[in-house]
């Protein structure tokens, strides 16, 4: 999946996707506001006609218009909300993928630094064993200098290892937080879909009763 989503085609489509997203958001907002206007319009007409006791056909026609405007209001409102939820879900999944890639890179770096530190420590131990008991002054001084240099390198590698380990733990914590947020959003999305299905069923039942 990572190889598929790393295609250059997606980066070229990203600009058009953002424009399309904003266009759909504007369109849904316009439809929602128009539905609100229609509901208010036919609600007031519905009350006035009911109070005036007009003929049943005109009253049924107004009632049908009111029902359709309410249906459009619910559909456009839920579509707008679910579109925003979808956008947030895509953003969280993208962040999660980036954090997972960073997590893998840091883990590899930690392993490499650990192997290098073990290698230098093993070389230091071999040098100490080979040069122990041989008391030539110049050789001993050179050995001490080499040993000090190796110690400095080991300390440097330990510091780098600690720094990388801290970054690794930080990235791991961020990945866990993004996963938790993504799971919460998924549960909220499932609940909204259940409510939307219930609303759709109630609308279908109301339409069936109206047709009868």
Explain what this protein looks like in three dimensions.
May play a role in anterograde transport of membrane proteins from the endoplasmic reticulum to the Golgi. This protein has 4 helices and no strands. It is 94% helix and 0% strand. The chain has a domain at 1-116. It is mainly alpha-helical and 212 residues long. The longest helix is centred in the middle third of the chain and has 76 residues, at 56-131. The two termini are 51 Å apart.
**Largest sheet: number of strands, sense, barrel closure:** none
Query: Beta-strand percentage?
Result: under 5%
Count of individual helical segments: 4
By DSSP, the count of extended strands is: 0
Which descriptor suits the 3D outline? Answer: rod-shaped
Domain Bap31/Bap29 cytoplasmic coiled-coil: 152-211
Function: May play a role in anterograde transport of membrane proteins from the endoplasmic reticulum to the Golgi.
Region (Disordered): 128-148
Membrane topology: Multi-pass membrane protein
Structure keywords:
212 residues, mainly alpha, 94% helix, rod-shaped, ER-Golgi transport, protein transport, transmembrane
Short description:
Helices cover 94% and strands 0% of the residues.
Topology overview:
Blueprint (H helix, E strand, L loop, with lengths): L1 H4 L2 H45 L3 H76 L5 H75 L1
Helix pairs in contact: 2-3, 3-4
């Amino acid at each position: 999946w990572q190889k598929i989503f790393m295609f250059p085609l997606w980066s070229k489509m990203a600009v058009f996707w953002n424009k399309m997203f904003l266009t759909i958001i504007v369109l849904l907002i316009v439809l929602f506001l128009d539905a609100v206007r229609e509901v208010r319009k036919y609600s007031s007409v519905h009350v006035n006609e009911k109070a005036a006791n007009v003929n049943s056909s005109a009253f049924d026609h107004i009632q049908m218009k009111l029902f359709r405007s309410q249906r459009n209001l619910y559909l456009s409102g839920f579509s707008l909300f679910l579109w925003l939820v979808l956008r947030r879900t895509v953003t969280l999944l993208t962040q999660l993928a980036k954090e997972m890639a960073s997590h893998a890179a840091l883990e590899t770096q930690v392993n490499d630094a650990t192997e290098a530190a073990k290698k230098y420590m093993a070389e230091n131990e071999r040098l100490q064993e080979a040069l122990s008991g041989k008391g030539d002054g110049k050789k001993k001084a050179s050995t001490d200098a080499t040993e000090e240099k190796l110690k400095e390198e080991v300390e440097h590698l330990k510091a780098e290892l600690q720094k990388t380990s801290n970054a690794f733990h930080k990235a791991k914590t961020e990945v866990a937080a993004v996963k938790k947020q993504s799971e919460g959003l998924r549960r909220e999305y499932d609940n909204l879909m259940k409510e939307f299905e219930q609303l759709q069923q109630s609308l279908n039942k109301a339409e069936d009763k109206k047709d009868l």
